[in-house]
Design a protein that fits this description.
Bound molecules: adenosine-5'-diphosphate, magnesium ion
Structural class: alpha/beta
CATH superfamily of one domain: P-loop containing nucleotide triphosphate hydrolases
Number of strands: 12
Largest sheet: 6 strands, parallel
Strand order of the largest sheet: 5-2-6-7-1-8
Radius of gyration: 18 Å
CATH architecture of one domain: 3-Layer(aba) Sandwich
CATH topology of one domain: Rossmann fold
CATH class of one domain: Alpha Beta
């Protein structure tokens, strides 16, 4: 289990910032882990702010909500820059669904950490094709701590690292829930992709 390093205060505060990244597929427990760390920071009486992309209103306009129905109040924002103002005076900043932000998220997280903030970012590392997703891979590179959490493959019960899209859309961003995506291991993900392209080819022929 990840043991959170202590946030400093007083004279060393500015020397104590860092970045933690929590990645994995859909249903892997990223949001649960983010909420767990933020709740612990609150118990330690640290000042905490939570942000999410304004475009992601699947479960709630303001709250960050996990698939296990735990939730925490957050501020929806359009651009990472907004955090620099909104998070002033904070000890800890939490960010969920980081993959939906643009590349400037990396610079903003670095700036916050450089100024002594503990930044905890959760997001999908791969999109539904198994490709690196948005700013998350670059964030993993600059972070001090990277935690990869795993879901359970709905086909075989192995550890799942892929988000398999059941729907036919080819957009990178397709907001959806259990009905659009499922967690799969590498092998069941590959099988599913092959089945999908075989049935698309058969449809094309007709
Ligand atoms: P994420 O933010 O990574 O999408 P959440 O933290 O929102 O994940 O949800 C994790 C919870 O999802 C688990 O605790 C479990 O209750 C539920 N869940 C549903 N399907 C799966 C699955 N295939 N594997 C693991 N957990 C699942
Ligand atoms: Mg989540």
């Amino acid at each position: 289990m990840f043991i959170e390093p202590r946030v400093g205060n007083g004279r060393d505060a500015a020397r104590r910032g860092w970045i933690e990244v929590v990645v994995g597929s859909m249903f892997s427990g990223k949001t649960e882990e983010l909420i767990r760390r933020l709740n612990r920071a609150r118990i330690a009486r640290q000042r905490v702010e939570i942000f999410k992309p304004a475009l992601d209103t699947r479960y709630h306009e303001h709250d960050v909500v996990s698939h296990n129905a735990t939730s925490i109040r957050s501020t929806p924002i359009q651009l990472p820059d907004e955090m620099l103002l909104l998070a002033s005076g904070c000890d800890v900043v939490g960010i969920d669904e980081a993959q939906f932000f643009d590349a400037s998220l990396v610079e903003v997280c670095n700036q916050l950490a450089d100024h002594g903030v503990r930044v905890i970012v959760a997001g999908l590392d791969m999109d539904y094709r198994g490709q690196p997703f948005g700013p998350v891979p670059a964030l993993m590179a600059v972070a001090e701590y990277v935690t990869k959490v795993h879901a359970v493959c709905v086909c075989c019960g192995e550890i799942a690292t892929y988000s398999f899209r059941k729907a036919a859309s080819a957009e990178q961003v397709l907001l959806g829930e259990t009905d659009s995506y499922e967690a799969r291991c590498r092998h069941c993900f590959l099988e599913g992709r092959q089945e999908k392209s075989a049935s698309a080819a058969a449809e094309f022929k007709h």
